[in-house]
């Protein structure tokens, strides 16, 4: 394997180039801040793990309830938030009074009555009308 080929990724090479461009005292500060961030994340992870273990042993909830003023993402939607449903607006059916359809169970409704067939245009054609067949009366 050639010695001039770097095994580092492109991101780490860019990071090193930027870091080398900065003065020495800024390089040290940046490295210390990165180190502190990594250690702080380890500490928080360990703290959560211990709290979870204690909660399981005590029989309490493993996850703490959210604080009262902790908002959610929906609180920041502004004009894009879904609109609250307004109370139902009155419709025309609300003003029908005695003419409103009656809600009766299906068992009590009378059978629909068949109306006599309406005259059609073919009834007025006279001798020019096509001959009727028995099934035409129901059309």
Automatic annotation (TrEMBL):
Keywords: Membrane, Transmembrane, Transmembrane helix
Superkingdom: Bacteria
Residue segments, region Disordered: 55-139
Transmembrane portions of the chain: 25-44
Bias (Low complexity): 79-90, 98-112
Listed name of the protein: Uncharacterized protein
């Amino acid at each position: 394997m050639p010695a001039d080929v770097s095994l580092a990724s492109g991101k780490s090479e860019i990071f090193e180039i930027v870091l080398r461009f900065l003065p020495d005292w800024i390089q040290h500060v940046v490295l210390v801040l990165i180190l502190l961030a990594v250690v702080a994340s380890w500490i928080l992870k360990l703290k959560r793990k211990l709290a979870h273990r204690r909660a399981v042993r005590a029989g309490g909830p493993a996850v703490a309830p959210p604080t009262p003023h902790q908002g959610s993402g929906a609180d920041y939607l502004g004009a894009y938030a879904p609109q609250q449903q307004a109370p139902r607006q009155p419709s025309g059916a609300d003003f029908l009074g005695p003419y409103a359809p009656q809600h009766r169970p299906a068992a009590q409704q009378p059978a629909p009555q068949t109306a006599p067939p309406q005259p059609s245009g073919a009834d007025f054609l006279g001798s020019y009308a096509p001959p009727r067949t028995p099934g035409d009366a129901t059309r």
